Amino acid sequence: MTSSSIGVSATEAARAASAAVRSRQILDAAARLMERRGSESVSMQALAEEAGVSVGLIYRYFGGKEQVLLAVIVDVLRAFAEDVPAAMEAAGGDPIRRLSAAFEAYCRVIDRYRHAAVLTYRESNALSAEGRTEIKRLEIETSEPLREAVRQGVDAGLLIADDPDLVAYNLLLLAHSWALKHWYFERTMTLDQYIAAQRTLALKAVLPPQGLRTYADLIDH
Fold first, then answer.
1. Are residues 91 and 115 in the same domain?
2. Residue 121 — left, alpha, or beta (φ > 0 → left; ψ -120 to 50 → alpha)?
3. What is the pLDDT of residue 151?
4. Is the domain of 45 the same as that of 73?
5. Distance CA 31, CA 100 (A)
6. Residues 169 and 178 sit within 8 Å (Cβ to Cβ)
7. Which CATH number fits the domain that encloses residue 38?
8. What does the alpha-carbon distance between residue 168 and residue 164 come to, in Å, rounded to a whole number?
9. Among 34, 63, 86, 110, who pairs with 67 as Cys (CB 3.0-4.6 Å)?
10. Confidence class for position 220, pLDDT limits 50, 70, 90
11. Are 49 and 71 contained in the same domain?
12. Sign of the CA dihedral with 207 first, then 208, 210, and 213 last
């Protein structure tokens, strides 16, 4: 590799890093602003002021306000797609520990993208039909690791659940509740305490008596 090509590569890397930072600024600002005002009430100028960038820069990265909203929601789903499988892999092969790791990862992503998670519920109707279809597709894809962990637990005789999908979606709703009712939960518990309490409730509902003893370290006493 020549010195000139090295210089070009370094320049491209710097530009990509700068673009990632700017994009993150815009998405974080959009999530905050749209949660406060609703997407319909947010102008591109207001978004630019919240993000500390120019309107032109926003249009450089996104085609318009709907594209910004879609990107905010997709950003959360992409974090699920990255963090949840990684946490499950780190937990090893035991289905219950994989399930526990998946639930914790979902909760931590929700906490990190709390404003954006709320937008998923409040503002997805503002998207086009194509945008809503894309969000639904990604939601199903990103929840599959959790559903698979529940199914594996049932197949191994470690969980008692007539409907594994329902168990998985109940866990997803518990994770999302940290964002939806954060004003309430934050009064009395931290994120770690919330994860431990909700995991305990969920596991006590689906573990047989022997399982409660085997996985006692996952249950908050």
1. yes
2. alpha
3. 95
4. no
5. 28
6. no
7. 1.10.10.60
8. 6
9. 63
10. confident
11. no
12. positive
What size, in residues, is the chain?
Answer: 221
The residue range of the domain holding 4 is 1-63
Q: What confidence tens digit (pLDDT) does each residue in 84-139 have?
A: 999 999 999 999 999 999 999 999 999 999 988 888 888 888 888 999 999 999 99
- Name the phi and psi angles at 189, rounded to 5: -150, 155
- Asked which of 16, 35, 63 is the last residue of a domain, the reply is 63
- Tell me how far apart the alpha carbons of residues 189 and 128 are, in angstroms, rounded to a whole number: 38
The predicted-structure confidence for 185-205, as pLDDT tens digits, reads as follows 999 999 999 999 999 999 999
b/e sequence 64-99, b meaning 16+ C-beta within 10 Å: ebebbbbbbbbbbbebbbebbbebbeebeebbbbbb
Per-residue tokens: 84 = 């949840």
